[in-house]
Write a structure and sequence with these properties.
By secondary structure, the protein is of the alpha+beta class. It contains six helices and six strands; from the N terminus they run H-H-H-E-E-E-H-E-E-H-E-H. It has a four-stranded antiparallel beta sheet with strand order 3-6-4-5. Strands 1-2 form a two-stranded antiparallel sheet. A hairpin with a 3-residue loop joins strand 4 and strand 5. Helix 4 packs antiparallel against helix 5. The mean pLDDT is about 90.
Length: about 180
Amino acid sequence: MKQEQKKLLGEERRERLLSLLKESNTPITGGELAEMTRVSRQVIVGDINLLKARNIPIIATSQGYLYMKATQETPVFEKTIVCSHSRSQTAEELYILVDHGITVKNVIVEHPIYGDLTASLMVSNRKEVEHFLHKVKITNSSLLADLTSGIHLHALAAPNKKAIEKAEKELKAAGILVDEN
């Protein structure tokens, strides 16, 4: 992406950020947005929060910021599933899901003090899963599921119900899917 010629200020910068995010089909990191607008990454974080406060549908994913477009060209089937597994099975779980054409929208855990904690994932393919896992490793971050001994939920989106049913069958065989019975 090309770099802006001058440092953008305030509202003009936020409008440019929104435009860049709307035009992109892939997430853009805070560092990339900072470089394009010639400000610090911290300024970008503040700007994104101001835009979110206006109910602009921007989400932060492990790959960067993403504008959630209101219209979808293909019908999507959505479902929330309950999983439980060790930290070492995280890659297996995510690969099973994305290999069935599923987007893992988020992870949700129930915290005893804060209630439901939700983090956006938005991973749809192996490359995005690898990026997420690499980021966890290099930052030495905990997974939300670490707070609940591995029990967590995922909101999923797939082109059809059959894709999720196939993934559920494979997750169950791997001992990851929590049986509803």
